Each structure stands twice: as C-alpha cells, then as structure tokens.
Amino acid sequence: MKILPLKEKKWRKYPPVLLLICALILMFSSGCVTAFQDENYVPVPPEAKKAGIKFSEGKREIALNGNTVYLSYPCRDGKIHRIDLPFLKNPELNGVSRRRVSPGNGLILIDPGHGGKENGARGRNSLEKDLNLAVALELARALRKEKYQVALTRDGDKTLSLSERSAMARKMNAALFISLHHNASANSSSSGIEAYSVTPAGAGSTNSPDEIDSKTYPGNRFDLAGKRLAVLCMRELIAAGIGPDRGVRQARFAVLKNAPCPAVLLELGFVTSPAEEKLLADPSRRRRVVSAIVKAIKKY
Ligand SMILES: [Zn+2]
User: Fold this and answer.
1) CB under 8 Å to 141, separation ≥6 — which residues?
2) How many angstroms separate the alpha carbon of residue 67 from the centre of ligand 1?
3) Contact (Cβ atoms closer than 8 angstroms) between residue 227 and residue 87
4) Residue 13: which domain range?
C-alpha cells in the first residue's frame, strides 16, 4: 500500500529545484551574492543611448562612433559612474566651456615634446624629440596657412622643462595647447596612436586607474573642452587611415594638468616598433597626420 499525501508527493517530485532555491536563499542571506550597489553609479543617460555608444560590462572603454574612448570608471551592472555623466550626457561635447579658437581669434600653442638634452623615446633610427619637432613645425605651417595664430614652445632642438612649457601658455594667454609626442614600449609589437586630455578630479588615469586623485588642477577647468579636442583629433586621424586606434585616454601629465586652457597630448605612433618607426619617417604619413589635426581644430 503506497498511499502518500498529495503534498509529500509534490515535494518528492521536485527535489533539485527546491535544493537550488534553498541554496540561493542561503547565499543571499550570507552575503555571497549581493546585488551591485554603489551610490556613485547612475543609469546610462538617454543621450548616450541616442548617440549609439557601446558599453562593455566591467570595462572603461566605450565605442563612440566606432572610436575607442576611455571613461573614468568601468561600466558596472549596466550603470556608469557619476564622474562620467557630464561627458555621456553630451558625447559630442558641444557647447562645453572652451576658449574660442578660429582664424584670427585665439592663440594655438604647439608643444613638441622633449628636446635638447631630453631625447624622449628612442627607436632604432630615430629619436622622439626630432619626430615631435618635425610634426610640430609642419602643423604650425599648416595652421598659419589657414590664418590661425600659432606659437611653438620650441622650434629647434632645445631643452625645456615641463613647467616652462605651461608658463609659456600662461604668458601667451594661449587658447589651446597641443603637445606632440611619440610612444615607446618594451614590447616591440606595440603600435598605434593615443590622444590624452586631463583626468577629471576624483578619477584615476587610464594607464593607472587605481591612483585616484581628488585634487582639482588648473587644467581641470577645461577638462571637457580638452576631451572634445582629443575626441575630434582621434576621429580625424583614424579617418585619415592613421592608426591603430589605442583610444582617447585621460592622464595627469604635467602639461595637461597645469594648462591654463583646453589641452591635449597626442601620441602619434611607437618609435619602438620597427614597422611603425619606418612609417613615422615617411613625409606623406606626416602630412596626413597634420591635415587630420588641422581638420579637428577647425571642427573644435
Ligand atoms: Zn614623449
């Protein structure tokens, strides 16, 4: 005789399901699984969705019009950090506080990195300081042709400290500061271009995300305007076939954080990559780089 009460039969029928429910209840109550909670994280704004930005869970990099841009904090549980909100609410950064730059209005200070005693990165056949200067001189010529007012922190092989460069920008009342560099890596296959603007207060920089600094530097007055130019430069460079795209990044480089105006620092390729070093010596690549930066400044 096997007459069991109905209730007991049902319990026997679903033991795996019941076990799983019990395990989950235990895990939640013991704190093994907790819902993601951080009051600094907010939903992705509709403007970012409208702009078609692609986010990746747990990552800082987003794709904006197909180009890589690094946020201050990783996307978590489909949400973004408050510090990234001003940018994501206005991904094209239209109308952000910036000094006016147009032909005959506002000085563009071009800063070829390193120089004199400081070689910067060293390739097999070239020194970074010389590559930086070659691009800077050509960029100055191209901008003057378009009637922009331009000055250079150095127009020859001269040693110049970082504070001297920022002091020049202040003294000249520069409207835009563009620092030109070339990159180095212990890995000879690293290649590509990067554009930096100043890291916002309260965030870590792209290359050292855990070093969070809450201090506001002079350059932070224009961090969004600098980001606007960095995004535009990268977009035009990639469109001109210069790459690979290593992203619009953030850093507290001295020339960015102490700039009295919107500022960007461009890393225009790796001298330590033998293949890329060859490209860097090619005047036609340099012309394409310069014309892309001019296009970006015109759109800025
Ligand atoms: Zn450099």
Assistant:
1) none
2) 23
3) yes
4) 1-34
